[in-house]
Design brief:
Blueprint (H helix, E strand, L loop, with lengths): L14 H14 L9 E3 L18 E3 L1 H6 L3 H5 L1
Antiparallel strand pairs: 1-2
C-alpha cells in the first residue's frame, strides 16, 4: 500500500459522523440553541471517561464551535 490508508475500509469510530445529528436533535428538542454554552471539560464517572482527540479541553464553547472542532465532551453533555 506504500503507506496509504484505505479510509473506506479502515475501522474507525463513528463519533464525528454522529455529532451533527446529536446537535440537530438537541436543537429540535429545544435543549440547546446556537448561543448556548456547552462544557468542554473532563467528565469522571467511574469507568467511563470520554475525551477529545486532542487530549485537551476548551472550557465553555458554543455548539457551532464544538461541532466545528469535533469536540467529544460537549456532545456527551
Amino acid at each position: 500500500r506504500l503507506g496509504h490508508v484505505d479510509m473506506v475500509q479502515a475501522i474507525r469510530s463513528p463519533g464525528s459522523t454522529l455529532k451533527p445529528f446529536i446537535y440537530g436533535l438537541a436543537l429540535d428538542q429545544g435543549l440547546i440553541h446556537g448561543a448556548s454554552l456547552l462544557t468542554d471539560a473532563p467528565r469522571l464517572r467511574q469507568a467511563y471517561q470520554p475525551g477529545n482527540f486532542s487530549a485537551g479541553f476548551s472550557g465553555p464553547v458554543s455548539p457551532p464551535r464544538a461541532l466545528n472542532y469535533s469536540l467529544n465532551l460537549p456532545a456527551v453533555q
